[in-house]
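>> Question from a student workshop board

For tomorrow's exercise we were told to take the sequence and the ligand below, predict the bound structure, and bring the output to class. My setup keeps failing. Could a helper post the expected result so I can at least see what it should look like? The ligand is adenosine-5'-triphosphate.
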Amino acid sequence: MNEESPAPASSKHFLEQWIEGDVLAGRTGGKVVTRFPPEPNGYLHIGHAKAICVDFGMAKKFGGECHLRLDDTNPSKESDEFAENIKTDIRWLGFDWGGHFYSAADYFDTMYAIAENLVKAGQAYVCFLSQEEWKKHRGIPTEPGIPSPWRDTPPEENLARFREMRDGKYKDGECCLRAKIDMASPNIHFRDPVIYRIMHVSHYHLGDKWCVYPMYDFAHPIEDALEGVTHSMCTLEFEVHRPLYDWVVDRMDEMGLLVERGGMKIRPHQREFSRLNITYTVMSKRKLHELVDLGKVSGWDDPRMPTLCGMRRRGYPAAAVRAFCEGVGVTKFISTTDVGILEQAVREELNKTAPRRMAVLDPVKLVIDNMPEGETHECDAVNNPEDPAAGTRKVRFGRELWVERADFMKDPPKKFYRLAVGREVRLKYACLFTCTGVVEDAAGNVAEIHGTWDPASLGGNAPDGHAVRGTIHWVDAATAVPLPVRLYDRLFQVENPDADADRDFKDFLNPDSCKEATALCEPALQGAKSADGPVQFERLGYFFPDPVDSKDGAPVFNRTSTLRDSWAKIAKK
Ligand code: ATP
Ligand code: MG
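>> Workshop helper replied:
Here is what the output should look like for this input. Compare the format with yours to find the bug.
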């Protein structure tokens, strides 16, 4: 699509319309500012990619900026390893936060000061109810809750208790700081929510500076407001938290903490869109952790994982991931997207870009009986039919070739246009070949396919112009290079591994999701490098030199994708 041409109004999703309205009404202080707030407690997955495309994409569309802000408010599971990989993944996806990299921890001093202000203003109190007691007090949406016995503690006393919390006088969970809002609100999250909790856990950057940490619902609006974020987009589960978000922003406004830009106070606003769910995988970080920790996969970057590093290692192009995220759109409907749509986006992108090469996965020998031993020929093979600029390469062949076992049939149906005794096929780019017979081993398996070629058909065309329907790929037996391949497939066997509440999602792992094999390859493939991206093995699929296990001159190929959706057929049956 032409970037210059304005999209028709109907194609703008609701968040784009929302932002556009604010821009036109002059409510952004001259700049749209969004943010992406991942927690550094795991690797980013395809669901995050959708949020990244929305957050960074909207900022880009309106000429603004998107901040990358680590939500490191829960130190128990956070680490630099995760933080660094988040950055790598976002850059790989093609987005840039410029100089705007922040962490929630940058604001802990300010957050604590705001909390003290709330305490002094009688808008927050230290509560000593246990979690269970609190659940009873909070009650159910249809009936007002029961106020905590600590709700009316005088501010000076609360301030003393809160400082004691900060100074480590209490154990984890012994007490917490609650915002004093509305115990009768039909919105449970508005009933005196916790805004600070005690956690005697070292922070991965701040060490033991703090033993109290702000809750996400308190921290997030503060971060947004302090950074001058205009549009804060998140997933639907936060919709019910929005009144609390606004409440915190109101308090900051009262404290004079909203930033000014373009002569106006910038007040952040939150909107929510539906999460991306896709079939045949799981996306909860807890479950992804479990797969890694139990060794069900080789790591976060296992090519079968729904993580961005896994997809990258598998050979998924970033452009395909972006195109997929664009395609699924932004709505408020809860739905699950067929993973086949992602795989199709990968094929469409690679079809345009991947060089073609020949390799045979399940080889059987083919002998051209009327070619003398030692004779060789060269043919020109097209590097990418979708890209004329990619040119051609010379491929050598001689009397003995490898072809795919499945390209021969003993008793073929009429419409089998490949190899069978008495039939003619085109050996791609090379020549026409007529099969005259086979040699079988003791078990009755085809050991060699014999036949003759027409030297006048060198290059692959019939000299008299007659039609040859079948074209098969091959590699020259004398020069073929055996290279390791990993035939990846979907990690789970069922559409929704979480569907059955009585079974563990791991029961549905696909035992055939990674098969190791050896491909007999044309020599050019020996020089394949991951930096050059995936290649297409003609008629077999897209393969990517594994960036970790490949060595110079010794690639290990990951199957990125087959050429067709073999699961669609299975689903139909
Ligand atoms: P989990 O629920 O597995 O712990 P999370 O959503 O808490 O994951 P975060 O690191 O907090 O993970 O997510 C960062 C941002 O990415 C959030 O704004 C969140 O809304 C968004 N996000 C996470 N998962 C998805 C998804 N499946 N689809 C769209 N956005 C997502
Ligand atoms: Mg989160």
